[in-house]
Amino acid sequence: MADELRSEEDQVDAIKRWWKSSGSSILVGAVLAGIAVFGWKYWQDHQERQAAEASSRYQQLIQLVSQNQTIDDQTRPKVNELIDTIEQKDGDTLYANLATLIQARLAVQDGSMDSARNILSGLIERNQDAYIERVARINLARLQLGEGAPKDALSTLSSLSDGPLSGYAEAIRGDAHQALGQDQQALKAYKAAQQHAQQSDLPIFGLQLKIDDLAPEETP
Predict the structure, then answer these.
(1) What is the CATH number of the domain that holds 211?
(2) How confident is the model over 133-144, as a mean pLDDT?
(3) I need a surface site. Which of 14, 69, 89, 168 has the fewest CB within 10 A?
(4) Which one-letter DSSP state was computed for residue 19?
(5) Is 119 a domain residue?
(6) 173: domain range?
């Protein structure tokens, strides 16, 4: 019996020693695991809140600019404030990129062509989103063409090949070539624009008239 009691005491002592040496680390490990789970959940909630706030800010911006063809002096400070907030808080998100495009559009409306050009050029240089870069290039090329710089417009569009919005890019190429007196290149670009427009179901108004104007007349 004494041997059995001694054996049980030895087991208890062994458990105590094990707990002293290992139990605390297990407890710490459990606590750290709990912190990790809590941290991940907090991060997910934080991300969701940020996304919701970013979406709300952008919706406010869209509402302001869509309600007014031209932004009046009372609305402009709020629009500028929203754009600045979106660019600062939402970083390189889609919302920030779209807000920058709106900023460029407003600069054009104000007649600040240099500012619009700089905004679009900066968006092209720093952007890693291929679609946003394409939109910015198309808008910059249209602006350059409107300023009487068709060669610059062609240079801006030179990196764009087949892809989203190719119809619009080709239409501007056509206008640039026509402005340079390059009718054959213009006709080729217009036809390419028409083909892309039909494939993407994005009609480009006035395109057929430009093609008809440049197409050689058929002999009877």
Answers:
(1) 1.25.40
(2) 92
(3) 69
(4) I
(5) yes
(6) 138-220
